[in-house]
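Re: the multi-chain job from yesterday

Posting the exact lines I submitted so nobody has to dig through the queue logs.
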Amino acid sequence: MKKVAVLIIALLLSYMANAQKSLLSMDENNKYIYYQVVDMPDIKADSLQKNMTLFMKEFYPKEKSLKGAGPEASVKDKFLTYTSLIKHENGEMAYTLNVECKDGKYRFWVTNFVFTPYEKDRYGMFVPVNGKDVSLEKAPDKLQKKDVEGYFEQTGAFCKQLGDKLKKYMVEGKTQPKVDKPVKKIVTDKW
Amino acid sequence: MLKSSIKSNQTKLILKSIQQTTSIMKKILLLLSLFVIAVTSVKAATPTAVADTGKVGTSADPKDPPLIFFGSVDTYYKYDFSGHRNIGTSFATDQNSVSIGMVDLGLKKKVGKASFVGELSFGPRGQEQSLPDGSNSLDPIVGGASSYHIQNLYVSYDVTDKLNFTAGYMATFIGYEVISPTGNFNYSTSYLFSNGPFQNAGFKATYAFSDKVSLMAGIFNDNWNTYTSQHDVSTFGAQLMVAPVKGWTAYLNVASGPTSGTVFDLTTAYQITDAFKLGLNAADFSTAHGGLGYDGVALYPQLAVSKIVTFGVRGEYFKFKKGDNVTGITFTSNIKAGALTLIPEIRFDNTNVETAGFTKGDGTPTKSAGQFVLAAVYAF
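And the result, structure tokens for all chains:
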């Protein structure tokens, strides 16, 4: 009984470790990619395009790399990666997000992952190591195995989260302005 | 007899009941284990919080980063070939001894535009070898024997995306090498490091013109390496950072004051290829009164031969103005095993005169000294 339980636990832990990495696939250019096609029945391409543009503007307002033409848009940005034991930044992952819309569906893909390691500077801040960029495809050859597993895991998680946020915009469209609810006040002079 | 038989039956029933209970307990335990794993699994598959994954929704959903802890520990063995300590640079001081460096513990937090960093250190490297005494040295009880353990204690505010104000007790902006062993390639330190400032307390403003150019200017306490100014806040400091090409960063530094003297410093590093990096430090220091001080230059070529092993050399020339000079060469390797770095190192120093301070095993003066160090540094 104990052996079976231990085996199940070991298998599940192994599965969990690989779960995020498996979210990334290889594209035809041998680059890691997170690719999704999302069906949006009954929604026209122009509505999806409006929602996509809104998403891009709200999520990347300062990003100069933001490009949008008709039903397509792309942007370059980066996210931070963290150590696992005691959380602090240990690098940043640059990526490119592409989105395309059609009648009844849209697709998006995240690719061009480039990792820049961080190091602690004299002031206790974690800063990029200048000139040490490495593409995610080459990371297993240049970085330590344990670290690389963490970067894959966090990249997969980030892409999934980004996809979920994009989908929320695509489904709901423009976010409704917040209506201030009247504050319920307690009247203390009548009791 | 009957009584005995009944008792036996009762015992059997109890045993059976216990066995059944144990079996049920095991099943419950297994189910609970699976449930916990399933929950953990779902949690793992769910992307971590926005703050944990950095710049998700940079403006649409900004979140402050969490309270961050960081630090390191280091230990070393050193053997000076003369049989006693010869080379007088900072740290790695103990001869033929497995000794400790320091435990370094830091935490930082940013809320909105305001942030703080607090970094404490314990151990020879993190106390008397790098920090000032915290007490009044004239105090008969604690004078000269109290450490505040503070390496960094400052607050910071981003006025705009480009302008930052910082105030407090900070590691110096001068020089190539640093106090924390995680920030250096070599374990032993250069003469430039050991003779330069370690910390400067004060206020500074940094303006980033672009990713490639920034300027810092500030006013600091009258003396280096003190928690309290002696008279006033009169050391002016400035740093121009330029990054002309990818991989190359250079810092032009100056710190000047009527009490602390004037130091000009160039610190630069260029990651020329994936494997090869070249660093350079040059400095000139003049005391405030009189013509004493030092000049020096150090070169740091490093070659990564695999993803876990890097070899490096530090070549240094250092001269006290109106005094002796020393040339040092240090061969170092960094061998990484996860967060642990092993640092074997061999170093040879040579002075221009026999009276500069090095001695042979029998105590007679000599121009040269050599030592071996094996250090282990764990960063977290």
